[in-house]
Amino acid sequence: MKILRITAQGLQLFKDDLDICFYSKQRVSVDDKDSLYKMEDNYYLNPACAFIGINASGKTSVLKVINLALSIVNNEPINHVDSRCILLGTEKATITTYFYDNRKYICCLETVITAKKAKTENFIYSILSERMWEKPLSSVKSKKYLTDFTGLEPIKIRKTDEEFLPDDISLIISHNKKTNETVEVFSLLSYTNVNVLPFTEAIPLEVIAFLDPTIETLRFEKTEEKIFIHLKFKNEDEIILNSAMNLEMYLSSGTIKGIITFSMVKEVLQSGGYLLVDEIENHFNKEIVTTLMRFFMDSRLNKNGGTLVFTTHYPELLDEYDRNDGIFIVRNRNGITVENLSYILKRNDIKKSDAYQSGFLEGTTPAYEAYLDLKKNIASSIH
What we know:
Elements: E1 2-9, E2 18-21, E3 37-40, E4 43-45, E5 48-52, H1 59-73, E6 93-100, E7 105-117, E8 123-136, E9 156-157, H2 172-179, E10 185-187, H3 205-211, E11 215-222, E12 227-233, E13 239-241, H4 253-271, E14 274-277, H5 286-296, E15 307-312, E16 327-332, E17 336-340, H6 341-344, H7 352-357, H8 368-380
Parallel strand pairs: 5-15, 5-16, 10-14, 14-15
Antiparallel strand pairs: 1-2, 1-6, 3-4, 6-7, 7-8, 8-9, 11-12, 12-13, 16-17
């Protein structure tokens, strides 16, 4: 299953309807094909999608919507998904997910969700209504109509008295059983500021050497009662730890996050799934981040169409892209908006970091007035 597009309406934090396309909307040249994933015929997917914006622009909120949509098509109960918090107390939010399945069909799932106040002051979410459409890819005349279902009748409509379907699980469960497929999703949303290494028995030496060449071995030993961590630096005695938390005393935050991330990368490239990373540059130098991006943007390595979806503050990372349609500009001006860079920059040969930092894209640099106010405040406090 490959996600083509996600739209959302009725989310309180967003100024307009959210619309994110994962397929290439620009013309694909011969040179572009090496960095894209070929879905079928002339249809390609962007394997690395960047969401960039200044602080508090709403980048993490966008990732939460994507994670929620992926969870819905994966049959996960909405009330068990961490990113459900993006729904807040919505009366009516509509999440629509377009995807390509293993039958070579384009499908559209429209899920309408509502919130009800719980006794704990949190919210309980349920699906108000739901519809699903499908059409064979062979019936699509051009890329323009790839996710257009105008005039087609839904193949499934959620029944309000469905006896065996929980209120917060999508009707797509029957489709997934029939096609025997789901989406593999690995999320680092919760690891942005938390560096606790999850238990893993085998960490490839190549991963360790890339992140910290002073480490000779790092392995986990699981007994019936405890987990022991064996850590050895070159020309040093082996250290044995009984808690992953203690690793923070010996390894940098970047090394720990790197081991977690690159372990997930291998899984995603193998399964053709999705890796969501918030603030990808946190604890990483630029070389590690660009290496991560290039793994996904190499069609010879990324044979199964794994997709990296990440947020960043750093415009320099945009220069890794030859195209504009894998980049999304996130702004927050009385509500979050998301705009694909290809709608703003029509040419691919303009240096993207320069366009971003120059203010040409609008709302991508802190306001000058805010800078002056901050400077005055700091000056007034210095005596």
